[in-house]
Amino acid sequence: MSPIISVQHLYKRFKILQRRPGLGGALVNLLSPRYSEVSAVQDVSFELEEGEVVGYLGPNGAGKSTTIKVLTGLLVPTSGEVHINGKVPWLERERYVREIGAIFGYRSTLWWDLPVIDSLELLQPMYRIPAERFRSNLREFSRLLDLDSFLNTPVRSLSLGQRMRADLCAALIHEPRLLFLDEPTIGLDVIAKEHIRQFILHVNRQRGVTVLLTTHDLADVERLCERVMILDRGRLLFDGSLTMLNHRFESTWTLHVDFEVEYEDVSLPGMDPPVRQGLHAEYHFDHRQVTSAELITRLLEKFRIRDLEVRRPPLEETIRRIYREKLLIN
Amino acid sequence: MRHQLSLYLRLISIQLRSQMQFRVSFWTDVITTGLLNFSYFFSTYLVLQRFGSIAGWSVAEMAFLYGMIEISFGSMDMLFSGFDPDSFSRFIRQGLLDQVLLRPVSVALQIFGSAFVMRRLGRITQGALVLIFALVNLPVHWTPLKVGLLPVMWISQIAAMGALFMAGSTLTFWTVQRVEAINILTYGGVEVMSYPMTIYPRWLRGFFTYLIPFIFLNFYPALYILDKPDPLGLPAFSPFLAPLVGGVMLFLASRFWQVGLSHYQSTGT
């Protein structure tokens, strides 16, 4: 089966006008504008299979949004090839956008002054959704997203969480095969985030919708994605499964130990001395060289121990390391 | 095409509904804009009464020129509300064009449907009253051609002035800020067309004959309807050029719009 998204050697460069200061500068700008070039996306290539949920991660300004804008047909790239659903997004925009849904977390795609239901009903003729399908989809999504209580409220009066739920409904009402989410949980509280994640998983599993999402919240990634792509300064640093990411980069684990009694020396031969605080000690170790089982056995042989806990570094830490150390793998 | 039209009507009806939510302020707006515009005409009327005529045009004949343009400009301003460079530049700045590009419908249609300022009814009504005043006081010898020319003038004027709105909005794809020069052309053009072209200096008349041929939209058809001789000696078909001028201007503006839109999509302002 051919991939639903295929991106090959994508580049996007922006020209930025260099403004000179002062009134004279403004005049000079007008007569001989000076531009500097910024590469937002450089040589990015990847493919997505139908039904995947993929996280597209990177620090601010890494080029995530630019990529999403190209993939949704809003922006024409400088060079490179993009085929989605067999179409080139920016060449046949009107036909292409019919098959995708998109959400930009920072801005609603709905009509600001209209009640939610009016906005949704406008989408029916726009996407030429058969009335029957529209009704049944609306029923299903209202139930899953709990929209009923604010269907008649204008979009501008919704809370952020409500707005995001309304937007999700709008993005999926025409049954797209692909969903692009740019920061879908930004600014939401824990419960609202979880609600949205559950819904995304639901449409992925029940309807087979392929999802590409950018986020700063790695809990989104851990909950939703089996695969992640990591972007930094326009370049793809990592593309692989979350397990692989953990395995390759999460080298330092921590073992937290609470002793029954105070010991003079709790260090183990061949290991870094632990960080101690009273009865508590933290052993940092490379799990690829020593397994936690082995370490625990050795400790139990020497000391009387009340509690043990193994902690893997949070995903955030791992990803921060990838940015910092520019670890590049394919 | 039918689908597009029904979608457009749907978008407009939503605009109207939200504008009618505040009924009182809506009607006071309609009436004040009508009165405000009428006061311009009335002051001119008072001055003209003392002189009797200007450049051979009586008060009623001038009312014909003025009334026509007011009706057309008001209609255009209502129909092309979305393309008003002032509001469109705001639209761009707020990044609202992205949500338009995400919909499987032509961008121009969505912009047409994005605003429909009903308040302009005030200006249209005022223009209609002035035009009725003119027609009642003028001894026009009506022929089928003259009767037919009135709606043709109306539509052509809407098209030509709408083209300037569209061009002004297109410029904001590059500048982001609205461009004052094009507004001067639009509103200045309207002002110029409200009076007999013979009162203007030669260079200004030349500008509105050969560069932006507004002279054929109102002045020449009016000469024909009012049976006045052509003081400028242009070809005999000049009174009938209005639809050509309107059509060509709107065509050029829509091509320019397409260019601007692709520019926007490659720079992502």
TrEMBL record, chain A:
<dbReference type="GO" id="GO:0005524">
    <property type="term" value="F:ATP binding"/>
</dbReference>
<dbReference type="InterPro" id="IPR003439">
    <property type="entry name" value="ABC_transporter-like_ATP-bd"/>
</dbReference>
<dbReference type="Pfam" id="PF00005">
    <property type="entry name" value="ABC_tran"/>
</dbReference>
<dbReference type="InterPro" id="IPR017871">
    <property type="entry name" value="ABC_transporter-like_CS"/>
</dbReference>
<keyword id="KW-0547">Nucleotide-binding</keyword>
<dbReference type="InterPro" id="IPR027417">
    <property type="entry name" value="P-loop_NTPase"/>
</dbReference>
<dbReference type="InterPro" id="IPR003593">
    <property type="entry name" value="AAA+_ATPase"/>
</dbReference>
<keyword id="KW-0813">Transport</keyword>
<protein>
    <submittedName>
        <fullName>Sugar ABC transporter ATP-binding protein</fullName>
    </submittedName>
</protein>
<feature type="domain" description="ABC transporter">
    <location>
        <begin position="5"/>
        <end position="258"/>
    </location>
</feature>
<dbReference type="InterPro" id="IPR050763">
    <property type="entry name" value="ABC_transporter_ATP-binding"/>
</dbReference>
<keyword id="KW-0067">ATP-binding</keyword>
<dbReference type="GO" id="GO:0016887">
    <property type="term" value="F:ATP hydrolysis activity"/>
</dbReference>
TrEMBL record, chain B:
<feature type="transmembrane region" description="Helical">
    <location>
        <begin position="154"/>
        <end position="176"/>
    </location>
</feature>
<feature type="transmembrane region" description="Helical">
    <location>
        <begin position="26"/>
        <end position="48"/>
    </location>
</feature>
<dbReference type="Pfam" id="PF06182">
    <property type="entry name" value="ABC2_membrane_6"/>
</dbReference>
<dbReference type="InterPro" id="IPR010390">
    <property type="entry name" value="ABC-2_transporter-like"/>
</dbReference>
<feature type="transmembrane region" description="Helical">
    <location>
        <begin position="207"/>
        <end position="226"/>
    </location>
</feature>
<feature type="transmembrane region" description="Helical">
    <location>
        <begin position="124"/>
        <end position="142"/>
    </location>
</feature>
<keyword id="KW-0472">Membrane</keyword>
<keyword id="KW-0812">Transmembrane</keyword>
<feature type="transmembrane region" description="Helical">
    <location>
        <begin position="60"/>
        <end position="80"/>
    </location>
</feature>
<keyword id="KW-1133">Transmembrane helix</keyword>
<protein>
    <submittedName>
        <fullName>ABC transporter permease</fullName>
    </submittedName>
</protein>
<feature type="transmembrane region" description="Helical">
    <location>
        <begin position="100"/>
        <end position="117"/>
    </location>
</feature>
<feature type="transmembrane region" description="Helical">
    <location>
        <begin position="232"/>
        <end position="253"/>
    </location>
</feature>
